[in-house]
Amino acid sequence: AFLTHHEMDELPVKERYRAYCDALLEAGLPPVAPWLIGVPGQEIHASDALRSSVDSSSPELKQIISQVSETEAPPTAIFALNDYIAVLAMRAMLQLGIRVPQDMSLVGFDDISIAAHLEVPLTTVAQDSFMIGKRAAKRLIERLEGYSGAAVCDFVPTQLRIRSSAVAPARIKS
Fold first, then answer.
1. Contact in structure between 129 and 172 (CB atoms under 8 Å)
2. What is the pLDDT of residues 43-98, one digit of tens each?
3. Whole-angstrom Cα distance, residue 146 to residue 3?
4. Taking Cα atoms as reference points, which of 38, 29, 31, 48 lies closest to residue 4?
5. What does DSSP assign to residue 12?
6. Which terminus of the chain has a smaller tally of CB atoms within 10 A, N or C?
7. pTM for this structure?
């Protein structure tokens, strides 16, 4: 499953969902619609996700629990839009009695500082936030200096950080 907030039109969300779909197709699996949590029209920010992960009555936590509980054939893995949402999903799995990674693998994106220090260290896709900031500053300076051409889309290389939260699904382990 691809777990995200409702803001699917944002380029990073689109790109991560596209990559999720591509990976499933490459594995011979049909992509499924994203699991949307939060309030339509609002992005889930880091502080919101972390606050929700420790509040058992949070709407986002309840939405994830509902998605997992009500899915006829639960997925073997969840790819979260970012590490904060992955932390929230990890809390939901704990409440459901689903063991990460034995019953459900979990992968995030960003490699936030706490990712490696969770009870189950989070497998995540790391991106170089310094490089992103540097490139954004460069584009801003170009605009301030008069550049009025088309918008430029920079892609920053990423790296998979394999930790303890993801394993091959039981049905395909060798």
1. no
2. 777 777 777 777 778 899 999 999 999 999 889 999 999 999 999 999 999 999 99
3. 40
4. 38
5. H
6. C
7. 0.87
Q: 106-157, pLDDT tens digit by residue?
A: 999 999 999 999 999 999 999 999 999 999 999 999 999 999 999 888 888 9
Residue 161 buriedness (CB in 10 A; 0-12 / 13-18 / 19+): middle
CB 86 within 8 A of CB 124: yes
Nearest Cα residue to 132 out of 155, 111, 148, 160: 155
130: left (phi over 0), alpha (psi -120 to 50) or beta: alpha
Sequence-ordered alpha helix ranges (H) in the chain: 11-26, 46-53, 59-70, 83-96, 129-144
Are 78 and 84 within 8 A, CB to CB? no
Q: Which amino acid makes up residue 105?
A: S
**CA 31, 36, 39 angle in degrees (round to 5)?**
165
Residues 6+ apart with CB under 8 A from 125: 107, 108, 109, 110, 111, 158, 159, 160, 161
Burial class (CB in 10 A: 0-12, 13-18, 19+), 94: middle
Of 33, 32, 35, 31, which Cα lies nearest the Cα of 6? 35
